[in-house]
Design a protein that fits this description.
Blueprint: H1 24-32, H2 43-46, E1 51-52, H3 59-63, H4 76-89, H5 102-111, H6 117-130, H7 134-138, H8 142-149, H9 155-172, H10 181-184, H11 192-201, H12 213-221, H13 230-240, H14 246-259, E2 284-285
Antiparallel strand pairs: 1-2
Helix pairs in contact: 4-14, 5-6, 5-11, 8-9, 12-14
Length: about 300
């Protein structure tokens, strides 16, 4: 060794200069010789075609792609394919609210706002036993009804709506729930969603689509609509869903939202509709997801 030249000493950190640190995953991949394709999937697993997406901001972010210009999310063949899956999954889907008359369904639907059907179904049997007819409700003051519906939430407004609807039905419709949309919309506490539930589930009139939180969220995931306003979503769905399926579609999608397509952590791996769904908030996918397609 030349005089005056000091040998290089190891770095105190234990790392030599010029070396590059690699993570455990990279080391394992290098050791096994695994190679990845353009989608970042190990080639030995690429044949399976499945990519587990842990979160919408991690692995799913790597799969975000703009839909092909030839892709049409509301193409009749795609819509029909999704409807067929819904038929197979929920062939006998009906309204989950317990009722025996049009009036009971109307009351239950009003009470279901910002509440669960299960909670409403615990309240209404006792309520209808205590007040069997629309005339019984019309004879109440809202304050008298409040204790009976308190557990459904927003009980003061709901009490006013139920009593007000009962009085109007008795005074103007002979004690019978009207069967026309424009007449139903004159009742206190009744908007299009409530009216569509009563007309579709009781009177068998498919004049609109019930857009609740499940229908809104899942229809956006399926790219049937880009809107967030329920009225605009209903208009979009009415253009692509056959009219004779409007009522059934809502019931089936509501069941789907409760069974598989949750708002958080949907069970995509168990869903037969998964290959037709390109939502970016999926938890598992076999297809490329589309940015902006989410509930």
């Amino acid at each position: 060794m030349a005089r005056g030249v000091t040998p290089r000493q190891p770095a105190k950190s234990g790392r030599q200069e010029g070396t590059r640190r690699i993570g455990r995953g990279q080391a394992a991949a290098a050791k096994s010789g695994a190679r990845k394709n353009s989608r970042g999937i190990p080639r030995k697993n690429a044949a399976k075609g499945a990519v587990k997406v842990k979160t919408a901001t991690s692995k799913a972010a790597n799969l975000k792609r703009a839909p092909s210009r030839h892709y049409n999310p509301i193409a009749p063949e795609r819509v029909n394919a999704i409807l067929k899956h819904l038929d197979a999954l929920y062939p006998n889907a009906v309204c989950a609210l317990l009722h025996r008359t049009a009036w009971e369904l109307l009351v239950a639907t009003i009470l279901s706002a910002q509440s669960t059907d299960a909670n409403v179904n615990r309240v209404t049997p006792i309520l209808f036993e205590k007040y069997p007819t629309v005339q019984d409700f019309a004879a109440l003051s809202p304050e008298q009804l409040e204790p009976d519906v308190r557990s459904t939430g927003f009980f003061r407004n709901k009490s006013k709506s139920v009593v007000g609807a009962a009085r109007k039905i008795v005074a103007e419709f002979g004690g019978e729930v009207p069967q026309e949309m424009d007449q139903l919309l004159t009742l206190p506490g009744v908007a299009r969603k409530t009216a569509n539930v009563v007309l579709g589930s009781w009177f068998g009139k498919g004049v609109g689509v019930v857009v609740d939180t499940h229908v809104q969220r899942i229809s956006r995931r399926w790219e049937f609509t880009e809107n967030t306003d329920p009225v605009k979503i209903e208009q979009d769905l009415m253009k692509i869903i056959p009219q004779d399926r409007w009522t059934l579609y809502s019931h089936q999608v509501i069941h789907h939202g409760r069974n598989l397509c949750f708002a958080r952590k949907p069970k995509c791996a168990d869903c037969p509709i998964e290959p037709l769904c390109y939502a970016e908030d999926k938890t598992w996918t076999t297809v490329e997801v589309h940015k902006g397609a989410k509930g």
